[in-house]
Amino acid sequence: MVFYPRLKEYFDTPPPTEGKAAGNAPAGGKGPGKAIVSVMVIEPTSLDDVVKTTGTVLANEEVEIRSEVSGKITNLYFKEGQVVQRGALLLRINDDDLQAQLKKFEYNKKLAEDNEARQRRLLEIEAISQREYEISLTSVRTIEADIENIKAQIAKTSVRAPFSGKLGLRYVSEGSYISPTTRISTLTNTNPAKVEFSVPAKYADAIRNGSRIEFQVESSERKHEGRVYAVDPKIDPQTRTLQMRATSPNPSGTLLPGAFARIELVIGNKGTAITIPNEALIPEQQGHKVYLVKNGKAASRMVELGTRGERSVEIVSGISAGDTLIVTGILQVKPEGPVEVREVINQETQKLALQP
Fold first, then answer.
1. pTM over 0.90
2. CA distance 281 to 272
3. What CA–CA distance (Å, rounded) separates 272 from 262?
4. Could you read off the pLDDT of 294-325 as tens digits, one per residue?
5. What phi and psi, each to the nearest 5 degrees, are found at residue 147?
6. Closest CA to 354 of 286, 279, 267
């Protein structure tokens, strides 16, 4: 009798009604037995064939800054990480000896020009031979050539940026003695960025300059676009792959040289087709089926499949544009059972990846 109150409560509790079993209990006053689903309205989409591969991000232009001549650095005009324009002066090397030689040649030139002028006047009155005048003229021209040579050597003592870009770390200091083998810094231009990659040789005929790629780098989930601008004219006999490069706009500098890239190369377009997410497809012994929403109820349809992709599959027949496809919540769905739409998912352009 001690347990009588609990036994009475147990026997007095009415059995659960059908449709309110665990997992189908209405939430928030929703209709009894309704499956809560997400749907997508089927629309024809552009269907691209893509080849997936990997590659490396490269700089558009990159160079190690070095001096053409040896000497002591007298002035440094740049900072590490600085953005410079083409022709910007980066450093100067001591050129005192060259400047002294330049002055010497300039004095000799003046003397030679005066001598040439006198010889020309003497030639006009036939006081000297043509040969004697040509010797004086040659002396002037020889000194002029020496001056141009010295000026060229002096110009080499000023190291300038060969193109616009961003400087890297500095490896020398003011007062350092450097030679042509001394690395001063690096200069990199990353806009546009280049992407180097290779694809299997069987796709060689489908790839040409202008082919579009999409890629992601490890540091970001953002997708970048690019265009192939150069294709190697030969196939690598060791790997049986074709190497190529593409360019991608990089005004913000987010693509860094050396980064690993996951690439999708678009090699063709199949036109418009009906595609659905893989999770909406239900395999059966006779084939595959999907669930549609018709008048608030679930209706099953057998479908014929076309090309499969990583996240989507092409549907050749069985459903049409405008049908409302159930994408999630399929485990709760029963044929001809009531459904309640929780979310409408937008359909995106599908890309079907080809096997490498």
1. no
2. 20
3. 26
4. 888 888 888 888 777 667 788 888 888 888 88
5. -65, -40
6. 267
**Among candidate residues 284, 250, 344, the one with its CA nearest the CA of residue 58:** 250
User: Two tokens at 70?
Assistant: 């040896």
Q: How far apart are CA 6 and CA 9, in angstroms?
A: 5
| 338 upstream amide cis, omega within 30 of 0 | no
- Cβ proximity of 268 and 212 under 8 Å: no
CA 327 – CA 36 distance, rounded (Å):
11
Asked if 270 and 354 touch (Cβ cutoff 8 Å), the reply is no
